[in-house]
Prior knowledge:
By secondary structure, the chain is an alpha+beta fold. The protein has two domains: 4-77 and 237-419, SGNH hydrolase (Rossmann fold, 3-Layer(aba) Sandwich), CATH 3.40.50.1110; 82-233, Galactose-binding domain-like (Jelly Rolls, Sandwich), CATH 2.60.120. Helices cover 29% and strands 24% of the residues. It has ten helices and 17 strands. The strands form three sheets. The protein has a seven-stranded mixed β-sheet, with helices on both faces. Strands 4, 5, 7, 11 and 13 form a five-stranded antiparallel β-sheet that branches. Strands 6, 8, 9, 10 and 12 form a five-stranded antiparallel β-sheet that branches. Strand 15 (292-298), helix 7 and strand 16 (335-341) form a beta-alpha-beta unit. The protein is globular, with a radius of gyration of 21 Å. The two termini are 17 Å apart. Mean pLDDT is 81; it is low at 88-108 and 118-122.
Amino acid sequence: MIKATDIARWRLTKKSYKGNTGYGVVDSWVADALAAAKAGLGLVDLPLVGDSNTTVNSSGWLAGLPLGFRDRGGKIYSTGLVGAGMAVGSGFAIQHWTAFSTAIGAQSGAPANLDDELTQFQLHGYAYITAPAGIIKRNRIFPDVFGAANGETWRYWMEYGDFAAGGGSFVLRAQLDISPYTVRAESPSIVCNVGDNTKLAYLDFTVPTQDAHAVGITSAAANVWLGYSSIDRLNIGGICTHFLASYGGWLLTGSSATSFLKLLKTYSQTRVGAFLARIRRKQMLMGYAPKIIVVQIWGANDTSVGKIEFKANLLECMEWFRGAYALAGGQEEELGFLLMADHRYDDVGSAFQLAREAFSAACDEIALSIPRVASFNLQTMFTAAEGDANGWYPSPADHSHLSATGYRALADRSFQRVFGL
């Protein structure tokens, strides 16, 4: 078994390493990328796809991973990308959401190439929306979620586009989101000229307090269409998570028509690749070599199939994402994977638990055999008794999910035990 002290020593040699820690599989590419991010010397973005444990109760691993990384001494550098039409009134990224009252759908004059982004909800459908005059697109962020020090400079950036005819204009504004709603910064009027192009608008602003802030469009002279946006901390290394898909109660494997793998094959690799390319572009614009780690979380709903089939389908899912990234111009050495079978269910060897142990073993085997792939073994990471005692499950009756505290605590432990962070 590899120990954390071994990892720390090998990291100094800058040589590749891979092995089973007893709590999962460490891979040097993944571990070194995360170590650089923790040291403030790089960025790592983690798009997540999985079952309900990905985003359950407005938390899941989507929030648990970055918060656990922060508890290990790292930083959360960004909210992650949010599509303008995603999650109206709620959020898939940490305390960053959209709020507006116009309908989602293809609009007259919007660039025709974006219609593909409206076909399916998850894996980034509904990625853009038009905002008629008078409609405000609003995002909200709490600095304490970042763990940010007062006086930091943040960048709000947003995609927008020209119309084929009759383009509009808008203004970006950042302001305090509680009384007296002090304006921190405001952009000049941004004009959407006649055309058919995608562009980026930026607004940098200083956050002098830990209070909630709102950023977004404050006015629109005519229709504009809006794409993805995020809020980033400038000149700070770290990680962030992104939502790709969460299917509670759906099967990753097996003969069911709702199999995620079968569903995945109906999605556009071009569209998902374009989302990953946006992450890549953002890292490069901030001056870093791209490092993207796709996190896959499965197992809770897969007890009807065996380890061999689970493993084969997980490998095929990984290959699909590699293909999507390549189509978007990404390089093979920029993309990694973190595999997680769902957490320990009980300590008595029920059918649910035995299946999860087999699936965790499958994740470990894949990670040991393929470069740039690591795994967390959430069966050996803790016991169910420990989870109950620490409040890591929502209740003694619900071991299918974890509490927000549980996702965060186990992320902290996993980063330490597997990667030596």
